[in-house]
């Protein structure tokens, strides 16, 4: 775990691919518990440590996760995420041969997504269907190599597997994401999707917080950034 930002009310950490944000049926230690232990040791807290989970990243995704350290921050952050006041930017590495994203100008993708609970997968439609929820994101090309393209994504809604599903729907499955059409998996089981940047007004101090993520260890990420 790597702490990227912290104060009395919030803490932002870098999540490695493969980590889970909150406990699930696997029984694996979640990132939330690791952060609690970090706070307990650093500040020598004798009792239970409060930590609020305000959003999640899929297990194979890496990047920034925001936690609340106080109940006041948790309530306000929950409202901010719900109302779209937390601006998240993602980077995705996709197959250049398949992907038709060629412009550095932002384009908008709109779909209607249906979540299949049993498959843990979402399906995209270009029109409203039963049980669907509207999903909107903006995307643009920011880098490329001979084989891959680096796409920047800004989420305008928050749906299950939204970026993974919508990029696949426009012909740009994320590298390593077998569930959404990638040709092969990444060796470490990750998918090449990074929660790169988060910007919001601090829920208590009202200062503007802007944080950017470190890059994953895979050297492909460094190579893609060099080719921006």
Strand content: 25-35%
Helix/strand-derived category reads alpha+beta
By DSSP (H or I, 4+ residues per run), the number of helices equals 4
Helix percentage range: 10-25%
Question: Which series of helices and strands comes N to C?
Answer: EEHEEHEEEEEHEEH
Q: What's the total count of β strands? A: 11
Write the topology of this structure.
Blueprint (H helix, E strand, L loop, with lengths): L1 E5 L3 E6 L15 H12 L9 E2 L8 E7 L2 H12 L4 E9 L11 E10 L4 E5 L7 E12 L3 E8 L6 H8 L23 E9 L6 E5 L6 H8 L2
Parallel strand pairs: 4-10
Antiparallel strand pairs: 1-2, 2-4, 3-4, 5-9, 5-10, 6-7, 6-8, 8-9, 10-11
Question: Can you tell me about this structure?
Answer:
By secondary structure, the protein is α+β, with helices and mostly antiparallel strands. It contains 4 helices and 11 strands, in the order E-E-H-E-E-H-E-E-E-E-E-H-E-E-H. The chain has helices at 31-42, 71-82, 162-169, 219-226; strands spanning 2-6, 10-15, 52-53, 62-68, 87-95, 107-116, 121-125, 133-144, 148-155, 193-201, 208-212. Strands 1, 2, 3, 4, 5, 6, 7, 8, 9, 10 and 11 form an 11-stranded mixed beta sheet that branches. The mean pLDDT is 94.
């Amino acid at each position: 775990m790597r702490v990227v930002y912290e104060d009395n009310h919030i803490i932002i950490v870098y999540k490695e691919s493969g980590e889970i944000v909150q406990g699930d049926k696997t029984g694996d230690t979640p990132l939330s518990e690791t952060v609690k232990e970090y706070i307990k040791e650093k500040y020598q807290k004798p009792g239970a440590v409060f930590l609020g989970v305000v959003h999640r990243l899929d297990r194979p995704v890496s990047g920034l996760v925001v936690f609340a350290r106080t109940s006041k921050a948790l309530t306000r952050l929950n409202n901010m995420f719900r109302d779209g006041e937390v601006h998240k930017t993602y980077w995705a590495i996709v197959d250049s041969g398949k992907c038709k994203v060629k412009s550095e100008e932002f384009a908008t993708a709109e779909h209607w997504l249906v979540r299949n609970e049993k498959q843990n997968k979402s399906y995209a439609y270009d029109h409203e269907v039963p049980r669907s929820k509207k999903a909107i994101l903006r995307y643009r090309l920011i880098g490329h190599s001979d084989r891959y393209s680096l796409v920047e994504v800004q989420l305008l809604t928050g749906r299950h597997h939204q970026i993974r599903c919508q990029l696949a729907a426009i012909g740009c499955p994320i590298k390593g994401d077998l569930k959404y059409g990638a040709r092969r998996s990444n060796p470490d089981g990750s998918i090449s999707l990074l929660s790169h940047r988060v910007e919001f007004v601090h829920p208590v101090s009202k200062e503007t917080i802007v944080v950017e993520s470190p890059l994953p260890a895979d050297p492909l990420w460094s190579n893609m950034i060099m080719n921006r």
